[in-house]
């Protein structure tokens, strides 16, 4: 009997830890799914901020996952596009930067994180292109090249660079003619891209396609 | 055993069947305004939400017992409150404190205009300084479009708020530059030596500046050089006045640049009719070496060395003999500086610098040989301690050794001075909205054997979003001009006391500034009847500035206006009068637009200023005559293109397009019989240049 009790205690212990782990996992996945739902349904800047806050809460709680901070940064970046006041735009991008830095601290070799870092730097430049273009472009491009090197199959750094070329005036080395082959290259990467997990980043394909159409 | 299984099932079911507590409430700021988009969360839990447009929130939590609610928002800090969850609904009224940060904190703006790309809330960008029409990339000419300054005249430098050109000093990475201009020719202003493209930050202070800087009665121009360049590039410039070649090599943590240029104004001057009777049109050749090294994570070492040699000769009219008088000048200038800055730990910063310069002028004036040499060595160190988020205290010391000698037909005289200074200054943020800067600077001059102590105080208060008021008071000391010091050491420091009040409002691409000032001069040097410090004076006025990038799409313009009322008794003046650099009204309109289709930047600058007083020996009162008003309209175009696939800018500028006939003043013969007007060397100047960059095909301004 004594032996039995010992066995039962062992079983209970295993079952308990197993459930709590599972419960944690389920909670994380549930929270992420609700965050992704908030993101996909967001319409206003405030909606994106709410989604970003949700992701940041998850990241702060789970501590070991880079994905929540990545999405928190990305939603903050989208929030920036809804703003008009340059100080607010800057504040949103600074917040995005702070969030992606947290993601990078968790996973310093993730191509998606470097893509986002480069994207954030571009968006920072767009707030005041005249003043920031010269000093900021290099660092943004370096991040995106790092993203390519870390995972050559990731289409997003290609798309972000193509998009940047699209919105850069011809006089500064951008324009539709420069952007078109870049979008085409990104489109091929998007076609071949498969995510391992439905929560992983998988955005950009539609925008890439529509901007490619505009280049024609 | 059965009991055990029930217990087990009970344990397993805990996760699924907890009670949910409703938590709701509002988040407001210190002024009771709702905070939108604030994040509310429970520590060590996924539960939480965000506030809506009214600052309201509500969410359910399955936690129980004592928990910590965290709340934060962009632009605010993070705060927390402990509550106990029992299942009963809770209503929380939360207040978030604004975070002390550089983004929303008040800044001291009294007296100063800052051009920077990295800092927030500045009025100008460094590109603005480089692209102002009429300035042709001369820092000083660009700053003449800002309020508080006087438009161009026949003398080099900046005349700030009734101050002489010698009252403005230039600082390069914190170090005083003794000879920032090419040699002054008779009645012809010279350009600054430094290219505006070298600097990432330019602060032009028209008064009330930091105790870190001394030896300028009126104004400090503080230039901060760029950090590491991004790429290895070759820059070629071909201009109507000469050419240059610069090579930048970027290494992993350092960069080396070297280059040379040759300028010859003869071809340009032969095309445009010159009022000046040139004998040898200005030529100059020079080279620069720059080295920048990033040391560990936070340290930056910078060094810059420049050498140039220039020659010129011309004939001026000798009104007394009604004949030509020959003038020639050969100038050799060597300037070098070395600076290092680093952070030590989290809250200490050090800035150290060393500079040396040697500038010599030799030539003939009429039948006489003259020579002049300036030598300067400076060492400076500043330590800054950061206190809390924004407040700082800094202290430092600088040591300036200057030597000047002058010769005239073999006779010579010289002086040596060692100026030792110490300073302490603190920025105290009493809140996000109120800052006080309190500083003290003490100097000792070995040559004068005199000491001075200069207190400086500034206050700034944020009156609303984007608007603030600033006040500044300060005492400023400067050694007498070299021309007097070579004659005697029986002089004292000259002194100016500044008072100013400033209001600034910045919103969505528009900036409005108004500043009123009063400046009192004491102990100015008088040269008659003998050299003494009995000169005095005042300057008071109002400066206005309006910049608008918003109203007209793609158009950026600024308007500056200065009203100046000044009188002084100094130099050889018999009484206190308005000096020749005291135009009462000055107005500048600077316009910039980028035409995307034409790939061109177009800029225009219009300046108008009331007449300047001049000395007419035939007049009944001293300096009672005035020239007619000054006017200028300059335009420039930068066309961005590529040549052989290399990024190229083609630049054209025309100064004084309409051909206004400006007179800066008059020279009279000793008997007052004859006079000659002082005017620019040419009615118009046209400049063409092509600037090619190899190695960087993208995104360069």
UniProtKB/TrEMBL annotation, chain A:
Listed A to Z, the keywords are: Signal
From the UniProt annotation, give the residues forming the signal peptide.
1-23
What InterPro entries would the database entry show?
TPR-like_helical_dom_sf
Q: Which domain of life is it from?
A: Bacteria
Tell me what this protein is called: Tetratricopeptide repeat protein
UniProtKB/TrEMBL annotation, chain B:
Key words, A-Z: Receptor, Signal
| Pfam families hit by this protein | CarbopepD_reg_2 (PF13715)
Q: Where is the signal peptide, in residue numbers?
A: 1-19
Recorded hits in InterPro entries, A to Z, give: CarboxyPept-like_regulatory (IPR008969)
State the name under which the record lists this protein.
Answer: TonB-dependent receptor
Instruction: Look up and give the organism this protein is from.
Output: Pedobacter psychrophilus
